[in-house]
Amino acid sequence: MKRALITGVTGQDGLYLAELLLGKGYEVYGLVRGQNNPKVEVASRIPGLKLLFGDLTDLSSLLRAVHTAQPDEVYNLGAISFVAYSWENAHLTSDVTAKGVLNMLEAVRLYSGDEPGKVRFYQASSSEMFGKVQQVPQTEETLLWPRSPYGVAKVYGHYMTINYRESYGMHASSGILFNHESPRRGPEFVTRKVTRAVARISLGLQQGLELGNLDARRDWGFAGDYVEAMWLMLQQDEADDYVIATGETHSIRELLEVAFKRVGIDDWEQHVTQNPAFMRPAEVDLLIGDPAKAAAKLGWTPKVGFEELIGMMVDSDLAEQRALAG
Ligand code: NAP
Ligand code: G4F
Predict the structure, then answer these.
(1) Residue minimizing CA distance to atom 21 of ligand 1
(2) What is the C-alpha to C-alpha distance for residues 187 and 241, in angstroms, rounded to an integer?
(3) So what CATH class is 186-218+248-286+304-325?
(4) What is the pLDDT of residues 200-225, one digit of tens each?
(5) Which residues lie closer than 8 Å to 31 by C-beta, 6 or more apart?
(6) Is 90 exceeded by the pLDDT of residue 326?
(7) Each residue of 107-160: pLDDT tens digit?
(8) Residue 265 confidence (pLDDT)
(9) Domain ranges of the chain
(10) Is the CB of 218 within 6 Å of ligand 2?
(11) 55 Cα to the center of ligand 1, angstroms
(12) Could you tell me the CATH superfamily of domain 3-180+220-244?
C-alpha cells in the first residue's frame, strides 16, 4: 500500500485529492493547522483519511508529520491562495505560500537522507505566475511575470521545487494549474461567489451581486479533473513541470450569463453592479493555458467543460441554499 501526505487537505483540491488517493488504495495523511480550526471537521468526514497537525511555517511540525506518515508521495497544496487577500497580507503570504514550500522541501530532503528519490514531491504552482502574460496561450516555457504578492510567492515555490530537483536529484514536480473550480470552491473566489449569489437571487434570498472587473478572462476547469493530473505527474519515471488547463478562456461576463441562465434568468445585467472595492491593484487580464505537454506525456485531458462546471456549481448551491432556508 502506498502512503501519501497532503498539505492543504482541508481546501478544495485537498479534499478531492484525498478521495482520489483513498480510492486507489493509498494510506492518506492530511496536514491540518491551527487551534479549533472549523475546516478540520470537513476533512474528518472523509472515511479513512488520517489527520496530522502542522503548519507550513513551522519546519519542525512538518518534519514530525513526514516522519509519522513515512510517505511515498507528498502533495504540497497548502497555501494562502486568495489573490486579493495577498496584497493585504503580503508578509504572511510570503511566509506560507513561498517559504512554506521551502520548509516542505527541506522536511522531505532531510527525511530522505541519502535516497533523494525516496519521496515523490508535488508542488501546487499556479497560472497566476504568468500574470502580465508574455505569450498566448501560456506553456511551460512562457516567461513568468507575476502581478500579485501571491503570484510572486508562487514563483518562488516553483523555482525552489525545480532547484531541489536539480540540486539534490529529488523527484520534485511542479503543476502549473490554471483556475479550477467545483462546488467545494471557497465562496471568496469569483465562480463560487457568482453561483452562490445566483442560487440565492433565484430563491428570493438576496437582492443583487456586487463584483469587480467583469472583463478579466480565465481558463476554468473542474478541480476533480485537475487532481488526477497531480497524481499522474508523480507516477512518471522523471519529475517534470506541466501546464494543466482546458485551453479555453471565458470572461466574467460569460460566467454570469451561463450561471444566471441556469436558473432561467436572461437579463443578468439587472442583478449585477460593479464595486471598486473588488478591483485589484494590478490585474491578470487573460489566462489561457496550452495543456499539450500534459496530454502527450501524462495522457491527461480535461473531462468537464465550462458550462457543465458552472451548471454543477449552481445546482449544488441551489440545493445548499434550499436546505439552509428549510
Ligand atoms: P484552498 O481551498 O484555498 O486551500 C488552501 C489550503 O491551504 C487549506 O487547506 C488551508 O488550510 C491550507 N493552509 C493555509 N495556510 C496554511 C498554513 N500556514 N499551513 C498549512 N496549511 C495551510 O486552495 P485550493 O483551491 O484547494 O488550491 C490548492 C493549492 O493549489 C494552493 O496552493 C493554491 O494556491 C494552488 N492553486 C489553486 C488553483 C485553483 O484554481 N484552485 C490554481 C492554481 C494553483 P485551512 O483550511 O486551515 O485554511
Ligand atoms: O476567482 P478569483 O479570485 O481567482 P484568481 O485571482 O484567478 O486566483 C485563483 O486562480 C489562480 C490560478 O490562476 C490560483 F492560483 C489562485 O490560488 C486562485 O485559486 O478571480 C478571478 C478573476 C480576477 O480577475 C478578479 O479580478 O475574477 C475577477 N473578479 C471580478 N470580480 C473577482 C470579482 N474576483 C473575486 N474573487 N471577487 C469578485 O468580486
Answers:
(1) 78
(2) 29
(3) alpha beta
(4) 999 999 999 999 999 999 999 999 99
(5) 5, 6, 7, 8, 9, 51, 52, 53, 54, 62, 65, 78
(6) no
(7) 999 999 999 999 999 999 999 999 999 999 999 999 999 999 999 999 999 999
(8) 98
(9) 3-180+220-244, 186-218+248-286+304-325
(10) yes
(11) 12
(12) NAD(P)-binding Rossmann-like Domain (3.40.50.720)
